[in-house]
Amino acid sequence: MSTSIQPLLAVQNLSIAFGERPAVDRISFSINEGETLGLVGESGSGKSATSLALLRLLPPSTRVTGYLGFAGEDLVALSERAMRRHRGRNMAMIFQEPMTALNPVMPIGAQIAEAVEAHHPSLSRREVRERVLESMHEVALPEPERRIRDYPHQFSGGQRQRILIAMAIVNRPRLLIADEPTTALDVTVQAQILALLNRLRRTHNLSMLFISHDLAVVSQVADRVAVMQHGNIVEQAPVSQLFHSPQHPYTKRLLASAPTMRTDRTQPLATLA
Predict the structure, then answer these.
(1) Residue 92, class by beta-carbon neighbours within 10 Å (0-12 exposed, 13-18 middle, 19+ buried)?
(2) Which CATH number fits the domain 9-256, given the four candidates 3.30.365.10, 3.40.50.300, 3.60.60.20, 3.30.450.20?
(3) What is the per-residue pLDDT across 64-94, written as a single tens digit (0 to 9) for each?
(4) Residue 146 contacts by C-beta under 8 Å, 6 or more apart in sequence?
(5) pLDDT digits (tens, 9 = 90+) for 13-46
């Protein structure tokens, strides 16, 4: 007797249009429990619009069609009130730029606490504080008990990204959406953040949608990769297969455009037409 495992997230024929022309055109993908899918493509390919559609954070004027299934529930059909129960609790997002995602005039402890209080209003102030400190410890922020009242500008770029991750995981979500979480960081800090995300994923059996334009970064966190071009997914494959045997011409150009230690320096890098 065969049994089929339902994916945690199932996206079928998703289209997103901000005007007449669709920014995302009938894409489909899925993410299983504990799995990371890397969504890659150049700027403007529709990656971020896809992530915002999953959380229903696009402007009301945007036309979104298709099926967005989370744990068997159609997110498109949910009321806004029901969607708010998912957002930040079962599904959470790490944004690209911490300084625009964080409130500059609110202590970081209070910002993380807001995420807890929104979904657990019955908790006492002491219990909320304990959860905030636990989350800060989990992302390896230095001296959380002392720095819980500090403001975003008092932290480095890498530490601010850790604060966003602490906010995202404090309610123990099942799906984490990471939208270019390492783009604004230097290479050393980038490696630390990727290692942190991998550790949190193993510890909490997190599923993750990891969005990036950088295939080298995606290779360090993803199990499978979906490649987007002009609002379409042109190729999907396990990460090792995609890197060693890409099938679509765009994927081949994307791989060839990134220099490696074996790149022939006498030849120009491939360009994306």
Answers:
(1) buried
(2) 3.40.50.300
(3) 999 999 998 999 999 999 999 899 899 999 9
(4) none
(5) 999 999 888 999 999 999 999 999 999 998 889 9
